[in-house]
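Good morning C.,

I know you're traveling, so I'll keep this short. The sequence:
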Amino acid sequence: MLGWLSGTILATYQRGNRHLIVLRCGSVGYEVNVIQRDWNDITQHEERAYWIHQVCQNDDTILYGFQSLSTRELFRTLISVNGVGPQVGLALLQECSVEDLVDAIIDADLSLLSQAQGVGRRTAERITVELRSTLENQRASFQESEPVKGQESKGERAVQDGVPGDLVNTLNVLGYENSEIRAAIRAVKDTLPPGTGEDAWLRACLKQLSLQ
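The tokens, ready to paste straight into the viewer:
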């Protein structure tokens, strides 16, 4: 079984909702399915390395590639749930970072999980029920996982989205769970103009949190 590949990007293309690359390793080109976010960040002829999950179906072999070991391991955990196939696993990993996805499952943030393509509320509930205790025991290892190229940390992503980088940490200190904070940010985001300062964000989120 293949576990890791390193080589040069020969081609990138889509096949339906699948995002694929051809990775040349020596004289062999491997077709690999990757997360859309990673695919968007790829340029041809650059060097890339992937942790590989290999699926053998009848006479066909399908490869899924991830830029960190922790991402691959979370993918394998996700597809262990009945009804969650590889494409749904990729869609969940596309939705947010590894750390945020683990938090969403542990916190039973069904709203966030259901945003992933192919994930309905029942599937989201099944994921949280089956994986919560497992991921709680492994949470620290995912929080300490190495960063993935093209995938920002929670704070960096918040700044890029117009949300002050310290807002989540401040609300955590005040005792709010990540699932509550994400819901509040989504609720107030469109009501605040670009460039709104952290104090105004904090007041708006606290007001929204008081209604939840």
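Safe travels,
E.
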